[in-house]
Amino acid sequence: MSTLKNTINLGLQIVPKSKTMDSYALVDKAIEVIQESGIKHLVTPFETVMEGPEDQLFEIARKAKDAVLEAGADEVLVYYRIQIRKNAGVNIEDKIGKYSPK
Predict the structure, then answer these.
(1) How far is CA 35 from the centre of its chain?
(2) Residue 100 covered by a domain
(3) Residues contacting residue 92 through CB under 8 Å, at least 6 positions apart
(4) d(CA 99, CA 102)
(5) Which residues form the Thiamine-binding protein domain (predicted)?
């Protein structure tokens, strides 16, 4: 198990509201920001989970939210889920690696 300090997991769900635009296309804008950041992440049907330093992840989350608004959303609901350990890092692989195809 990895013990990278300052590494957290942040689950980010952005739910855009728009009267004229497709919600999935707006969510794609948020995912693009995350992908372009280069941070380790996992896109799931309900949220995207990122791994890295807390400050960096919250900055990426803010940019992702802004990208959805700039793309035309009238409003967004943003949900965060965070796992932080006091004396060790939190890594996606430690939690789900055993389920990855070999």
Answers:
(1) 10
(2) no
(3) 9, 40, 42, 49, 51
(4) 9
(5) 12-99
Expressed in angstroms, the distance from the first to the final Cα of the chain is: 18
In a domain, 98, yes or no: no
CATH of residue 72: 3.30.70.930
Instruction: Classify residue 20: in a domain, yes or no.
Output: yes
Provide the domain count of the chain.
1
Query: What is the four-CA torsion angle of 53, 81, 31, 17, rounded to 10 degrees?
Result: -140
Quick one: residue 36, left, alpha or beta (phi over 0 = left, psi -120 to 50 = alpha)?
Answer: alpha
> How many whole angstroms from its chain centre is CA 74?
21
Position 102 in a domain = no
Reference 26, options 80, 81, 74; nearest CA is 74
**What does the pLDDT look like over 29-77, one tens digit per residue?**
999 999 999 999 999 999 999 999 999 999 999 999 999 999 999 999 9
- Give the whole-angstrom CA distance, residue 51 versus residue 18: 29
